[in-house]
Input
Amino acid sequence: DVVVTQSPLSLPVTLGQSASISCRSSQSLASSGGDTLLDWFHQRPGQSPRRLIHGVSKRDSGVPDRFSGGGSGTDFTLKISRVEAEDIGIYYCFQYAHRPHTFGPGTKLEIK
Amino acid sequence: EVQLVESGGGLVQPGGSLRLSCPTSGFSFTSSWMNWVRQAPGKGLEWVANINPGGEGKFYVDSVRGRFTISRDNAKSSLYLQMNSLRVEDTALFYCVAWAGDSCYWGRGTLVTVSS
Output
């Protein structure tokens, strides 16, 4: 199975500052069709997850442009500029290039 | 308004069975890949299974293959998960998740507790 790792696992951030989360996969997530199959999800406490980014860098509808995704192959990054209080929770990357699909372990963002 | 409403969870003894249901509305179910994702108490997300729009392609994580069966009824816009031979380690909140074009929709989940 493809192993997905994230760092850091805990991310204390000051309001208004930027944050960055790294996601690495044990195999390339590039598909034969040219797309790279990596999404980012955010789960607030007590809520269902919500997808933020699909296909590495495409923001889902309604997602603020403070969120950006990048990377290729096996190395990916989620960047949050100007962190707001509503950004707290756990961020997961998710690969669907290989079966079984797998989530990373999650990165818990908290406000300092 | 998009709705995915899971039901069918509950308390079951090890070795028992449950059938989860997820009726949906507000998006094109018949053209959407549908997934089950679970989250054990206090733990991260785990993809469990998915099914293609026509229902012929079904895929599972190794730990449930042979015990769980995913299915769908496109006429009812509903997704199902038949779970047999349940184990203590299957205890989790089970989410129904739709990949609908460029959108991704989640339900609120149904809790499955496997305990004697």
Summary: Residues 30 and 54 of chain B are 7 Å apart (CA to CA). The radius of gyration of chain B is 13 Å.
